[in-house]
Amino acid sequence: MTKRPRIAALIVAAGRGTRAGEGLPKQYRPVGGLPVLTRTLAAFADHPGVDAIQTVIHPDDRALYDASTLANDKILSPVSGGGTRADSVLAGLRALDGLGGSDGIDCVLIHDGARPFVGSEVIDRVVDALGAADGALAMLPAVDAMRRVGEDGRIGPDVPREGIHRAQTPQGFRLPALLDAFAAAERAGTLAQHLDDAAIAHANGMTVVAVKGDPANFKLTTAEDFAMADRLLALPDIRHGQGFDVHAFCEGDHVILCGVKVPHSQGLSGHSDADVGLHALTDAILGAAALGDIGRHFPPSDPQWKGTDSALFLDHAVKIVGEAGFALSNVDVTLICERPKIGPVSCAMRERVAEICGLDLSRVSVKATTTERLGFCGREEGIAALASVCLIGGMG
Asked: What is the pLDDT of residue 384?
């Protein structure tokens, strides 16, 4: 049986990150409540194909590192980096090479500490490619128009984007071959001249291939990058609400359902216009935001609401949840009755509800069902309605 190669992740986190602005080095700044480096380490610690994790840090950052690292058996003690990124990578490679014995590392995945959103699929693709090549790196094709820009800000000639890709990390290599490549560059004094690890490998004759990267695997470099990362990690406050209402039949020649007048042999009894559909929907919206119910906002004992169009109640509910920082995402109303038939007027009901709620029609559902002649609805003593809604917070 072929032995599975042992794979180590080498996390490069020795930089100062001055382009991110004042404050802590960027790898220790929080995004979504956790330090960047913590998220990066977790991505590799959680990957079943990674056997060890070696981090390279700045000599002055040990306390910051200790506060950001994880309690995980894969994570080795950090080593100090050098004056350049290439020097830091070489220090990490030598530390991994020194493990030896049963812990000996066959392949290494070099990754920027400031790329916390690397996914397991990208790691898998780099590892898989090492079965047939000396090295592999995640890359993304250029999709935007490419142009040179002069120092005065004026654009110059177009740059053909065919074959142009953006390099990401991880960049994976067979460890012995990469150590030889770095040693050769060190002897030649060219370490700092290469853009990345793949360039050093390629210059020493290693076969390096590209695999598909991921746009989400971006590097946190500027303050704008951190702001974008926080937005991506912000969890929406999603609330669900449900409402139920029922009104009995009375004398009349029509009913009001979901804001639409529907001819019928009877009417519905109620303090307002007895629109059972809008009442249930109003309760669902208020309930989702924990703002009480329709009776609290419009007491049936108050004569001013006698005969009121229930659209006023629904409009009020939508407005106050908006003031509370919520946006209505979608609504679903089910009318329960034997008669009148809802199908012929359901489109008009959806349009009216969408209008009141300020929603696209595709986010509004109005449907009907019967109780198979069972219960008060089945005996045609009244109409009931169920409603459910979804609110999304952080919109105020």
From this structure: 98
